[in-house]
């Protein structure tokens, strides 16, 4: 089990590195293919578009494919996309290559989250999923700075080659360490789409888009905020972003056990603390030490809410959690685009560099409102059928959910689904 989770974390590390390294290499890429830096910035959008499209489409196409085989196929596509990025001779082909590299992103995380939850007992499912997500947070500390430095020293193409090598290592790790997990007889695209029609799934995705939009409203403009308001030099911003990554890692580590213990309260607390941290940053951004401490806490809370949102979607999709888990990452990228757009509007309106903090806090509070709405709907129902899955049990593999009372004590039954505490 630990080696299988490590293999999934390596996949997440590669995804996190390729997603964010492009941002740090935009000047080098622009010079290399003969376009302006703002024009090269469209490559970031190409990757995000690939994530939004690929998560539901590839998950649907692979709805009947056993999870391990699907992970291997998606990892292979990830490697091909990054090799194509390294070899692209012009902007048009590089744009297409970045879109291709983004296609398996959401599906890999979605399928990986379901696989991780089935490697352990039900009461430890969230901890297993959070360990996979650690690969993404560690990428922000190690992978992105290393990829950026490599691209600056040896050329931007070398960064994509390095990510492709990481992808090959992940592919081999998945092949050796992840056990076979067959799909149930009911598996299929129609089965997954029916599960996506659940109102709680829609509310969960809305919570992700709006709540994480608050996080990205600030993250997108963090560097100019720190240089213009805090007075941190350009050369020090990489270290600050690494500090942000440290906060994200700590938040992920804490979220797993708390989500296993009480899912909805963990989600509520994370969104509330994120909103409070963003408001605090509005006042601490002018002083170096308080600003850095607040930045670390914002990073922690941003990643802290990832695990409960992921587990909630898997739970509410009942016996077809894969597409819901994958679509969560489409929601993250929509949050990225929407949060950055709203934060930019505030700055363009003349409200100042600190204004995205208040925009972000407003979005976090709105996300909290959506989360509460979902919780109230749960309380209105006598029972809540939820599932994440367990081990190699029959209910995990055939997709049978067990009805559990939300007010019952947290004592998992054999072959039963994981409890969602409203």
UniProtKB/TrEMBL annotation:
Its topology with respect to the membrane? Multi-pass membrane protein
Question: Where is it mostly found?
Answer: membrane
- Segments carrying the region annotation (Disordered) are 390-422
Question: What InterPro entries does this protein map onto?
Answer: MFS (IPR011701), MFS_dom (IPR020846), MFS_Efflux_Transporters (IPR050189), MFS_trans_sf (IPR036259)
What keywords are assigned to this protein? Answer: Cell membrane, Membrane, Transmembrane, Transmembrane helix
Transmembrane regions listed in the UniProt entry = 42-63, 70-89, 95-120, 132-152, 158-180, 201-223, 235-255, 267-285, 291-313, 334-353, 359-377
Ranges of biased composition (kind: Polar residues) = 390-401
Instruction: Give the domain of life.
Output: Bacteria
Pfam families of this UniProt entry? MFS_1
Under CDD domains, the record lists: MFS_NepI_like
Give a yes or no for keyword Cell membrane in this entry: yes
Query: Where does it reside?
Result: Cell membrane
Q: Which residues form the Major facilitator superfamily (MFS) profile domain?
A: 2-379
PANTHER family cross-referenced by the UniProt entry:
CHLORAMPHENICOL EFFLUX PUMP RV0191, PURINE EFFLUX PUMP PBUE
Its protein name is: MFS transporter
- The protein's organism comes out as Streptomyces viridiviolaceus
């Amino acid at each position: 089990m630990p080696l299988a989770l490590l293999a999934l974390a390596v996949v997440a590390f590669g995804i996190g590195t390729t997603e964010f390294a492009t941002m740090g290499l935009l000047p080098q890429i622009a010079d290399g293919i003969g376009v302006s830096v703002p024009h090269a910035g469209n490559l970031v959008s190409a990757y995000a578009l690939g994530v939004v499209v690929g998560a539901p489409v590839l998950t649907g196409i692979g709805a009947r494919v056993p999870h391990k085989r699907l992970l291997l196929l998606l990892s292979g596509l990830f490697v091909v996309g990054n090799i194509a990025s390294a070899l692209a001779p012009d902007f048009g082909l590089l744009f297409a290559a970045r879109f291709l590299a983004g296609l398996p992103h959401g599906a890999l995380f979605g399928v990986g989250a379901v696989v991780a939850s089935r490697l352990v007992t039900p009461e430890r499912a969230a901890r297993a999923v959070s360990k996979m997500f650690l690969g993404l947070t560690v990428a922000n500390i190690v992978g992105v700075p290393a990829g950026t430095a490599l691209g600056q020293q040896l050329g931007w193409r070398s960064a994509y080659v390095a990510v492709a090598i990481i992808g090959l290592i992940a592919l081999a790790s998945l092949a050796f360490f992840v056990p076979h997990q067959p799909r149930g007889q009911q598996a299929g695209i129609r089965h997954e789409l029916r599960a996506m029609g659940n109102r709680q799934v829609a509310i969960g995705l809305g919570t992700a888009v709006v709540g994480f939009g608050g996080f990205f409203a600030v993250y997108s403009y963090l560097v100019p905020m720190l240089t213009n308001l805090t007075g941190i030099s350009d050369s020090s911003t990489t270290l600050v972003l690494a500090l942000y990554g440290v906060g994200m890692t700590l938040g992920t580590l804490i979220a797993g056990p708390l989500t296993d213990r009480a899912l909805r309260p963990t989600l509520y607390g994370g969104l509330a603390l994120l909103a409070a941290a963003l408001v605090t940053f509005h006042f601490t951004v002018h002083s170096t030490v308080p600003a850095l401490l607040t930045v670390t806490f914002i990073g922690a809370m941003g990643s802290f809410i990832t695990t409960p949102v992921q587990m909630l979607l898997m739970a509410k999709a009942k016996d077809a959690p894969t597409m819901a888990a994958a679509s969560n990452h489409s929601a993250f990228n929509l949050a990225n685009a929407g949060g950055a757009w709203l934060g930019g509007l505030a700055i363009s309106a003349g409200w100042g560099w600190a204004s995205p903090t208040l925009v972000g806090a407003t979005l976090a509070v709105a996300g909290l409102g959506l989360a509460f709405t979902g919780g109230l709907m749960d309380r209105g129902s006598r029972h809540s059928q939820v599932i994440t899955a367990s081990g190699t049990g029959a209910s995990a593999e055939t997709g049978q959910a067990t009805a559990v009372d939300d007010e019952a004590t947290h004592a998992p039954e054999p072959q039963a689904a994981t409890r969602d505490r409203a």
